[in-house]
Amino acid sequence: MMRIQETFRALADPTRREILMHLSRREMTIGEVTDKFEITRAAVKKHLNILEEGQLISVHVQGRERINRLEAQGLSAVSDWIGYFDQFWDQRLDALKNAVEDAENAKRKSIKGKV
């Protein structure tokens, strides 16, 4: 359960979500990520550390560079957690469908009774 807390923490910030969008397109160095934002390299590094703690990115060293890569499977725990609540939407949508069908059936009966 601790992992999902760290993942939600990582996703809570709009800058980190935007970083994830950039990393979904390609791997990037800290410098390349920094170029996408009007914040300091140190701030980007902090965001990247939080994303790594949330297991949403991985970092590997290539020469002198640290390359950041999206780890999409890190989102699976979030998807599973949110997916649990689909059942409540399904129940409500089923209830709405039944209410609409009942109203249509009542309208048809009313029209037939008048004819």
From TrEMBL:
<dbReference type="InterPro" id="IPR036390">
    <property type="entry name" value="WH_DNA-bd_sf"/>
</dbReference>
<protein>
    <submittedName>
        <fullName>ArsR family transcriptional regulator</fullName>
    </submittedName>
</protein>
<dbReference type="GO" id="GO:0003700">
    <property type="term" value="F:DNA-binding transcription factor activity"/>
</dbReference>
<dbReference type="InterPro" id="IPR036388">
    <property type="entry name" value="WH-like_DNA-bd_sf"/>
</dbReference>
<dbReference type="Pfam" id="PF12840">
    <property type="entry name" value="HTH_20"/>
</dbReference>
<keyword id="KW-0175">Coiled coil</keyword>
<feature type="domain" description="HTH arsR-type">
    <location>
        <begin position="1"/>
        <end position="107"/>
    </location>
</feature>
<feature type="coiled-coil region">
    <location>
        <begin position="86"/>
        <end position="113"/>
    </location>
</feature>
<dbReference type="InterPro" id="IPR011991">
    <property type="entry name" value="ArsR-like_HTH"/>
</dbReference>
<dbReference type="InterPro" id="IPR001845">
    <property type="entry name" value="HTH_ArsR_DNA-bd_dom"/>
</dbReference>
